[in-house]
Amino acid sequence: MISIIITAFKEEKTIGRAIESFLNQKINEEYEIIGVCPDKETASVIRSYSKKNKNVKYLEDPHRGKPSALNLALKKARGRILILTDGDVYSSKNSLSELLSKFKDKNVGAVAGRPISISPRKTMLGYWSHVLTNTAHELRLKSEREKSFIHCTGYLYAIKSGIVKKIPENALVDDGFISHKIWDAGYKILYAPRAEVYVRYPTNFHDWVKQKKRSAGGYNQLKEFGIKEKERRSFLWESLGFWRVLKFSKSIKEFFWGLNLLISRIYLWILIYRDVNFNKNKLFGKHGWERIESTKIN
């Protein structure tokens, strides 16, 4: 059996598309789609699908953040392989087969999908999203060639059931925690670039900082969980790879947007240093998880 776990909160306008993107795929074995959310509006949409299709199930979480919701789903899921995704994204029609095909190797513990930005490239923040998703794609391809650690994206990835049974409820990067745990258990992590997941990214700078601070700051947090970081996530390391941003630009305007991205990353790392060393409550927030409003459909 395959278990598809979709975590959501106040995503009643997009959860249906997320569910349908899996229902419309050809699945050659028994499966279940578990929609996990705390709010009535999103739950109502999930229940409407469960009435039409017995494979769709609703699971209420206590509204303590995404890690708590995932822990609940990990207990209830019956699949040998778990597909983890979010309620505000949707997957390509071949994503399941692409992810599952990698598990023919019994030593594989996780497979990362490929985020594709649906934000407009004609705006600066939209352009940044295309730069960063393309860079992540190239780095995952490189890591797979070198058989090194791959950080699975929380937007879409698959894991072998039973390896990770619980996530710290204050974890900022649940995908990072799970990826490291699977790697440390001796399993391979592979990349399925044709398993695409379509993502809307922040449209204002405040939300961009909040999202990136949570992600980058969460890697500092992994040390608290006894995990040794496998990736080089620091300002210096990002600066050395900044040529990728300049190479990606196709116009003078995009070139200057790329320079603005570098300046913004400097500002971001200053904030992270401040909050990690002097104000952890500001970094982690309530339950370690804040909703990024501008990535949602209004």
Task: Describe the structure using short key phrases.
298 residues; alpha/beta; Spore Coat Polysaccharide Biosynthesis Protein SpsA, Chain A; eight-stranded mixed sheet; globular
Describe this structure in words.
The chain is 45% helix and 18% strand. The protein is α/β, with parallel strands linked by helices and 298 residues long. It has one domain: Spore Coat Polysaccharide Biosynthesis Protein SpsA, Chain A (Alpha-Beta Complex), CATH 3.90.550.10. Strands 3-2-1-4-7-6-8-5 form an eight-stranded mixed beta sheet, sandwiched between helices. α1 links the parallel β1 and β2. α5 crosses α10 and α7 crosses α10. The longest helix has 27 residues, at 252-278. The protein starts with a strand and ends in a 14-residue tail after the last helix. The model has no long low-confidence stretch (mean pLDDT 87).
- What is the percentage of strand-forming residues? 15-25%
Q: State the helix count.
A: 11
Order of helices and strands: EHEHEHEEHEHEHEHHHHH
Q: How many structural units, i.e. domains?
A: 1
List the uncertain runs.
Answer: none
Global geometry: globular
**Portion in helices:** 40-55%
CATH superfamily: Spore Coat Polysaccharide Biosynthesis Protein SpsA, Chain A
Label the structural class. Answer: alpha/beta
Largest sheet descriptor: 8 strands, mixed
